[in-house]
Amino acid sequence: MTRPLTERRSAEFLPDRPLDDSPDSVGEVQLTGRHSPAIIYDKMVDRVIGRRPHDGDLVHIIDGEQKGIGWGLYNVRSGIRVRRLTRRAAQPGKDWWVSRIDDALDFRKRTIPEVVEGRTQVGQKVYGPAYRVIHAEGDGLPGLIVDRYDSTLSVECFSLGLFQRVGPIVEILQEKLGTKHWIVRFDERAARAEGINPQEFRSPNCPDRAMIQEDGVLFMVDFETGHKTGFFCDQRENRKRLTEAAAGKTMLDMCCYTGGFGLVGGRKAAHATLVDLDENAVALAEENAKVNQYFGSRARYRFIQCDVFNYMRQVEAINQKFEVVVLDPPKLIGTRAEFEEGRRKYSDLNSLAMGLVEPGGLLVTNSCSGLMSEEEFLKVLKVASWRSGNEYRVERITGAAIDHPVRVDVPESGYLKAVWLRRTTDEQ
Asked: What pLDDT is stored for residue 427 in this prediction?
């Protein structure tokens, strides 16, 4: 899978709007209410006062009583009119941006030092870590995602205002982290929503791939064919937790992508089957498994390139069961208009998956759709259990790794729900 709709542009054209905005260039936006949410939609804006801001401009936010309640980035072409940066009274300048970045880096050094400093040596080569450096609203930088893969930063923009300033932000991160390369993307869906064309930039001589390590397991990250930033760091803690649960057992990893759950969680399994529709992802998962034979992996792997619906129906037809099943589909609900269709897909996937688990076995089922709440996902699983004819109990519910912090006023930023279900043994 390539990215044909994204325009590849030279690094010299990377947007580099200064982080210090002149007070004369700042507009003022008045809201209809008295509070300033982190995400301000069109209907929440009463009027623009004075100079009409350009798209991407910093604006001062005031409430219905004309009291200052923060600062944000403006875009009239987006359904999100303003993304609030801060509630503080003073206008944010470069020092404010640097402080936000420092806070994000310090948080990761305190909470995941073993990941930030993690290295794995193979022969003469040393491979570095993979973790999320900036998590949008969770780090107070809405519309910006930054993942580190060894010496490369993979950046995704979702906000025009952040995109316009991404050059100086990447420069600050490179200096503080000591990384050598970067990739910046504004993918099709996000760019269209913000009213611009999808674009991609890479530093000179940026590699197409990077080798990273997670808990001693090596993964090749392919920036050309990979999804999102190239790898899914959000599941790191869940993959590690699964390792002992799957030890000595038969395992099925559906929507396996490049093998995260199968290679980390299933490294002690008796046998692991990895399934995904994406041909490139399955090929890379198999390549990753071969690399990790040098670590004495005891699991015997089988890789299948297939639609998971078709695969599960085939397995069901021969009554094959697994002791551990992982279901980690891509986002099935991207907009509110897609909610009902996405909910049906989650229900269909899980009802089939629940029929493939041995009595007493474990199903780890995931939803990364931020618009589907944990409560709604549990309702889907309740219906799926009834449809499958099997009984399950919830052992635990987990989310994304700690380097994906969640803002309490942006609950959808806690997008990942991982529900650990145990099939009961007292069915008819």
From this structure: 55
Helical residues (DSSP H) of 117-255, grouped into ranges: 160-164, 166-177, 188-194, 236-245
Tell me the two tokens of residue 76: 């009239």
Residue 380 banded pLDDT, cuts 50, 70, 90: very high
Q: Give the count of domains, the chain.
A: 3
Residue 307 burial by Cβ neighbours in a 10 Å radius (0-12, 13-18, 19+): exposed
- The overall pTM is greater than 0.85: yes
* Distant-in-sequence, close-in-space partners of 100: CB < 8 Å, separation ≥ 6: 139, 140, 141
For 225-239, write each residue's pLDDT tens digit.
Answer: 888 899 999 999 999
Radius of gyration of the chain (CA): 23
What is the Cα–Cα distance from 117 to 128, expressed in whole angstroms? 8
Same domain? For 365 and 248 the reply is yes
Out of 43, 63, 86, a domain closes at 86
pLDDT in tens, 293-328: 744 455 589 999 999 999 999 999 999 999 999 999
Strand ordering across the sheet containing 45-49: 39-41, 80-86, 68-74, 58-62, 27-31, 45-49
In a domain, 21, yes or no: no
SS3 62: strand
- Judged by DSSP in three states, 342 sits in helix
Considering the domain architecture, whether residues 104 and 164 belong to the same structural domain is answered as yes
Mark whether 103 and 185 lie in a shared domain. Answer: yes
Domain hosting 62: range is 28-86
